[in-house]
């Protein structure tokens, strides 16, 4: 049992605080013989990096990853892969004002009650800074999954503003500062978030992550279900309050006929699904269709608008947070969500291989 | 790692198939010295039991639990608690028609592709019958939590029909066959589900589970978060496709001020929250407020309406399922959801005690 | 984490007390498609069964195993395999005398101090009766390992009496009541143990277990070492106080040249070891040579000779145990040791397959 | 599951290779509020450090530990404690000769067969250099155990030379380069090891580690036994081939009366044991007496004397190792063994507290 690890056969352990000297992680269980260098990880960190647009925190962190073990002559060796990112721009003084105060909606209070000690510098361990470790681990997980499996994410709602699904374009996602897949939504979101930031407020978001090219058979019938592990992985991201697979909560309003994913045969002998309400997972096990998951990110709790609160001496105070915070922390959660999905899938791919080495890599049935 | 266990210090392992001789479970890690007998478990099983109204499967199962170990002279001993429920009414012949066919939306296909062998009798391991084990384990978890912690559940939407929150009454929940908390919704749901059943169709549902009386401090900052474990536990229930905590997906549409749970002091020196958007969990750790989680259950996939599918020889066929199925599997998911929440909380209570024996049992701060 | 499970991908969980209604176990992670029935397990239980010679406990237990799940139409399905053995001959009254007294060298006292409650009927969970579960799990593990891997055990010392290694014959092992591999040692052991039993005393033993036909590569460099897992598995057997691999403690007295296992090439391109001081494991990983482990079993602590002790009220008393105990509990530890080795190897075989699917199945190098 | 972690509630994860940029570790689960700084760890590393006498490797490593997380203002925070030690003296060129050759008795071959890739620089992950991480983790474990629990180790045999138990002095251990507790054995060992080194050979050793001041109740009846975890922890140290508890293998030669640890009452109401054959553990659970474990270390396999071997192309070659190796690797295993024992005990202390918060801290019974 570990409170700072996830995964089983592809196992990630994370350490570090927002304002300590560094943050880092270990990937244990990565198979040997995979080409891996810092250049494979850095582009994913760069996507998550703060300070890239006016819509994310202005903290300046190069987020340069350094591989410390598990790779020799450009190849993974099968031993644990340790990596580290040094913290550079730790302006702890920004936090003087909230040193003794609990921000509403923030982990300040619960940490204080649980541990009795508190690293007040930018949230310590609860800071979204830790998500850089997840992104680095996700880059390694992608190596395990191989090029045939593609994992992508997009922000599909920002505050009350959604997208038009008929305009969904993956290519658009990397063209705007919101990872928004709908080109017509972008200017509206831009305007909305600019106003929110100006008002000292923040917005929530919904992120969608999709894995394509997966074999069927990943997962297990009950507690080791693929969807249960995805739910835990996404819910473990800072500020996430909801997770759904495929049709998700909307599916609860459907009847059985509408929700059924009917099947026909492809000419090549593989099963063809006529829809994907299931989000690629049935009974905890992947079908071979795209795995589709969405998660809800609450609005950033560190805001400039004063809120009623208490301090650690039990006095009633007002709190407002001056630091350099994301007005919509959901934006930077897109690469984090992708990474978590990649890690879960890499773990399940190894598990599946262990128990079911003969299972088919496609949803293929004998043709009669 | 186990595909059929959950929890760490309060650890449940489950076994058994829908149409085998029995199903059973083991609770490992239950502290010694707790009063426990079959009479503590049976009432919870009776709530989940099939055949109790026309709105659930007509399979007749007494679901009599038998304790096999871990209890001596009416007290837990600290050793593993094994229990078993015999299957009685295994009419496997009902399943002859779907022996070789894959029900759309069901685990039939993915099991076949993963394992190469398939227990076609009523879904084998994927049957909702297994949830009886969770309910029994939940009854033991409640013993660990003690009387001061109350865990309750209700169905808050059936198909497209919701409830009116202002009429929410916990007492109503046990007065109708839907675990519905809104007395005025009951006749509408009754009519709707009767029509659905008649039409050979099925409906989805949304369930809400709530834990009151918890101490603050349960959980951990990152991967061992209380909400991540709740998400996995609820998503691991058959047919669940979404999980949310507190405001959940609705919270994504809020701004930071609206979502903040402001705080004042109670006269007794404990923190008073003015709202509970967070659903009792901040930064992965319980606040001491009620923990509130909701999960979405898809409509039962075994329906009488024919759907296009394939069989295991790759032929295109039509499938309709004649067995005795729940027209709304969400109904019986209410006690299951309660049980899963109880198990997760018992586990975290033991974990918290191990690492933080001095932590306060209430959200109490020194008064200045 | 579990206190009653072992293994990771081939995971065994055990439950039950000596004098409860039954004992049982679950094997989770067994691959699907293996032929398995009760007839595959029973012969191994029969070897361990009490009451078969005057040198083991006279408790009469048929030890009939019943498979409850995970097998369908004679094949494993990939779901958890549950099995149960009913207790028949629970003469608890034999234990009346020691109800409140602590047997020196027995777990009575430590259980009492740890749990505050105690199942005084024959040791409860600490009874060697639980080892039947290990033997049943071991029979399933052998199925995972396949016929090419042979696991055998022998008792190589009984009390102060050893064997002559030059007379070691595997065939002899099943011809005498001691699992002794040296035909000339048998009559001496027989005489010695008869005298010991008559004197109301007991004897210790050393058991050797050997696995042949293993591929190289099972294990891991550091904490997940094959030998570390074997050590834990064997040390977890009741009454075991020491474990060694290959040369073991004797190797500590050797110099580097003598302990080195020199290598040449076989004509078929595989590596030929000129000796096996390493016991088939180097750096935590199997070499492909036979894995050889030995474990020391202390003399049974339940003896007829009175010993000074205390009771649970703190009074100084004398204790002697009248029950039906093994004068040399090491005898029945032979099939248990084999089973534990089989379980560890099955677990590591699955782990190895997950991470290193391309690794060779023999110690084969390219020939230049 | 992890191949590079050990422990559950006090969980250590290790990374790094002998000749990479650094090695490091993470301790997860350390309770908050313990005073901890680098100065608490460094003295233990200094005891294990190479280059301190002519009897250990001459590699020069300052082994300066750096804490990277989990400590704030001199106190543990309850979050993961990461630490790192940079490698300084990586003379990889020493290893040119064995780049393609397998040292008999070394992990070279098994790594090559398992992983297909090999870090030939000084053994990579299999080097004893990794044990520095264990020693650092052990220093943190000692903080969890507190000052009342003392953990000490000594080398009780070097090659064929043992000690005289009647001359055992803990104070002597730190006065000689062998951690030898018998002052009269020291000059003999000195002479013997000097000769061994000169001859290009090496010697094995037996180490004893002892924990005093433990409460009773640590451990569990079966698979989570304290002795099973100690066995795994000690066997996981490089070059260890045997582990025993208390009387160990000698106990197998005793009869039941001689091996029984008789009990009387102390005037203060605690149980007094008249002997400690059990090594402080009965039925997997600590008695409150000193826990005593011994482990056998094989002679270093990297020796100057040429041995027959093969290379990775399948050619038959002679191997001799020129690097800077310990002629008796057992010497530096003493602080490592202490550290592993400390880690296991810290883990079990936390586990015990979770499940049995009311258990007594001494072996105390009510006095009648």
Automatic annotation (TrEMBL), chains A, B, C, D:
Keyword Lyase attributed: yes
Pathway: Metabolic intermediate biosynthesis; chorismate biosynthesis; chorismate from D-erythrose 4-phosphate and phosphoenolpyruvate: step 7/7
Gene Ontology MF term list: chorismate synthase activity; FMN binding
One Pfam short name: Chorismate_synt
GO cellular component labels: cytosol
Cofactor-binding details, from the entry: Reduced FMN (FMNH(2)).
Catalysed conversion reaction: 5-O-(1-carboxyvinyl)-3-phosphoshikimate = chorismate + phosphate
Cofactor(s) listed in the protein's UniProt record: FMNH2
Binding residues annotated for FMN, in chain numbering: 125-127, 238-239, 283, 298-302, 324
Enzyme Commission code: 4.2.3.5
One GO-annotated biological process of the protein: aromatic amino acid family biosynthetic process
Record: residues binding NADP(+): 48, 54
Classification via Gene3D superfamilies: Chorismate synthase AroC
Domain of life assignment: Bacteria
CDD domains: Chorismate_synthase
Keywords on record: Amino-acid biosynthesis, Aromatic amino acid biosynthesis, FAD, Flavoprotein, FMN, Lyase, NADP
InterPro entries assigned: Chorismate_synth, Chorismate_synth_AroC_sf, Chorismate_synthase_CS
Function in brief: This reaction introduces a second double bond into the aromatic ring system.
Description of how the protein assembles with itself and partners: Homotetramer.
Cited HAMAP family: Chorismate_synth
Family recorded in the similarity comment: Belongs to the chorismate synthase family.
Name this protein carries in UniProt: Chorismate synthase
